[in-house]
Amino acid sequence: MRPQPLKKEKVCYLCVNNLRDVDYKDGQFLRRFLNSHMRILPKKRTGVCSTHQRKVSTAVKRARILAILPFVSR
């Protein structure tokens, strides 16, 4: 059997760049946490920590209500 390669642990983008708050008015920034169907990606995929994942999720939902981000893509 071959030894399994070690997976590189993801680090939180928001913690590394010292971003404490997630701005719901910044649509371009929030799009990095959405997939092509405009669904919120899980933290396992994005690599953000639990605290920031909750903030990102809330910010995306607020941006959708204000029509900054679409609910679905066509």
Automatic annotation (TrEMBL):
GO BP term (any one): translation
Annotated GO MF terms: small ribosomal subunit rRNA binding; structural constituent of ribosome
InterPro entries (alphabetical): Ribosomal_bS18, Ribosomal_bS18_sf
SUPFAM superfamilies in alphabetical order: Ribosomal protein S18
UniProt keyword terms in alphabetical order: Ribonucleoprotein, Ribosomal protein, RNA-binding, rRNA-binding
Source organism, top-level taxon: Bacteria
Signal peptide: none
Gene Ontology, cellular component aspect: cytosolic small ribosomal subunit
Subunit structure and binding partners: Part of the 30S ribosomal subunit. Forms a tight heterodimer with protein bS6.
Annotated family: Belongs to the bacterial ribosomal protein bS18 family.
Entry function: Binds as a heterodimer with protein bS6 to the central domain of the 16S rRNA, where it helps stabilize the platform of the 30S subunit.
HAMAP family: Ribosomal_bS18
The protein's name in its UniProt record: Small ribosomal subunit protein bS18
Highest classification ranks of the organism: Bacteria, Candidatus Falkowiibacteriota
